[in-house]
Amino acid sequence: MSRIAITGATGLIGKALSTSLKADGHTVHAVTRSPDRAGPDDLVWDLEAGTIETAKLEGVDAVVHLAGEPIGASRWTEATKRRIRRSREAGTDLISRSLAALDAKPAVLVSGSAVGIYGDRGEERLTEESSLGDDFVAEVCKTWESSATPAADAGIRVVHPRTGVVVASEGPLLDKLELPFKLGVGGKVGSGRQYVPWISLSDQVRALRFLIDTELEGPVNLAAPAETTNHDMTKALGRVLRRPTILPIPVFAIRLLYGEMGASLANVSQRVVPEKLQQAGFAFEHETIEAALRVALDRPAAA
Question: How many separate domains does the chain show?
Answer without folding.
Answer: 1
